[in-house]
Design brief:
Elements lengths: L6 E5 L4 H12 L8 H4 L7 H4 L5 E8 L5 H8 L6 E2 L8 H20 L4 E4 L7 H7 L4 E2 L5 E2 L7 E8 L18 H5 L5 E3 L2 E2 L5 H7 L6 H7 L2 E3 L3 H5 L25 H6 L2 H7 L9 H14 L5 H11 L4 H16 L2
Parallel strand pairs: 3-10
Antiparallel strand pairs: 1-2, 2-7, 4-7, 5-6, 8-9
Helix pairs in contact: 13-15, 14-15
InterPro entries: 4Fe4S_Fe-S-bd (IPR017896), 4Fe4S_Fe_S_CS (IPR017900), QueG (IPR004453), QueG_DUF1730 (IPR013542)
Pathway: tRNA modification; tRNA-queuosine biosynthesis
Family: Belongs to the QueG family.
């Protein structure tokens, strides 16, 4: 489409099944420290409580894959290279998607006149995947990501909550079948059952959402992943249909796609803020960045340069970072 969306669908606001699934997920404690998942109560699953007057949701998909999957796998297998989840290599998508949705709403307004609406893109308590599934954009896979038959799962979602009684699109069938490739590929077995992800075990949660120390049981499995994890998507057979995005804003910036772990650890706070300007990565802050890189270096091949880089950061390190630097050094000393 002219506005850069690859698919748009419309759904009603009935999310009873999704609400039950969310309530059970929260009851199981699978959200870990993500208290915001329960803060807003039923506003998350009842759109008209979040935005009064809402009767329909316009859901939109915009593809972001910045490089071929084979190249991502090559980088993931390089123990001295930092792996950043592909969605975070470029500019933060939140503003871009919302601005496109705003333009779409303006287009609609020129056709039907003034109407009530509000746009979102992972920016409020919105059940994005459940709404997208109901609008026919795809189905929720066993890894809990949305999958489109013609495009895989490398895409962002956005929504327009509206009071327009628009016709709804048909739901598509779930095409995961008996496949469990995503479950088998998860380094920490975070997909504890089909369609059930324990975030406390997920590398994306551990490297992004968790503020404190990363549990010892997961550190080796993290490998060189310093921000997020794409393993379940890389393993999904439906992603063979995914194509590289033409969006310039989603291309890698500041060399994040080829960043070495030693260079990543050397960034001081100013350098971190400068090189993550306009990036989703900035939200974790410099301390968690160093924590994550320390673990990745602990999992890298032993070498004098790696040990030296870790030792240099010990002086002046915070308690949190220091703990992970010492763990990383211990991995190399024990391997000698």
């Amino acid at each position: 489409m002219e506005l850069g969306f690859q698919h748009i669908g419309i759904t009603d606001i009935v999310l009873e099944d999704a609400e039950k699934h969310l309530q059970q997920w929260l009851a199981d404690g699978f959200h870990g420290e993500m208290s915001y998942m329960e803060t807003h109560g039923s506003k998350r699953t009842r759109p008209d409580e979040l935005v009064p007057g809402t009767v329909r949701v316009i859901c939109a998909r915009i593809d972001y894959l910045p490089e071929p999957a084979a190249l991502s796998e090559e980088r993931l297998n390089n123990a001295l290279q930092a792996f950043v989840s592909r969605y975070a290599l470029g500019r933060d998508y939140h503003k871009l998607v919302r601005s496109r949705l705003q333009r779409l709403a303006a287009r609609i307004e020129t056709e039907v006149g003034a109407f009530g609406y509000r746009v979102f893109s992972d920016s409020a308590p919105v059940m994005e995947k459940a709404l997208a599934e109901k609008s026919g954009l795809g189905w929720i896979g066993k890894h809990s990501n949305l999958i489109a038959r013609e495009a895989g799962s490398w895409f962002f979602l956005g929504e327009i909550y509206t009071d327009l009684p628009l016709p709804c699109d048909d739901v598509v069938s779930n095409n995961c079948g008996t496949c469990i490739a995503c479950m088998a590929a998860c380094p920490t077995q975070a997909i504890v059952a089909p369609y059930r992800v324990d975030a406390r075990r997920c590398i994306s949660y551990l490297t992004i959402e968790l503020h404190g120390s990363i549990p010892l049981e997961f550190r080796k499995a993290i490998g060189n992943r310093i921000y997020g994890c794409d393993d379940c998507q890389l393993a999904c057979p439906w992603n063979r249909f995914a194509t590289q995005s033409a969006e310039a804003d989603f291309r890698a910036r500041h060399g994040l796609d080829t960043l070495s772990l030693i260079d990543a650890l050397s960034w001081d706070e100013y350098g971190f803020l400068k090189k993550t300007e306009g990036s989703a990565i900035r939200r974790i802050g410099h301390q968690r960045w160093q924590r994550n890189v320390a673990i990745a270096l602990g999992n890298s091949s032993p070498s004098p340069s790696v040990i030296s880089a870790l030792q240099q950061q010990l002086a002046g390190a915070s308690e949190l970072v220091g703990e992970h630097l010492l763990w990383a050094l211990e991995q190399h000393y024990c391997s000698r």
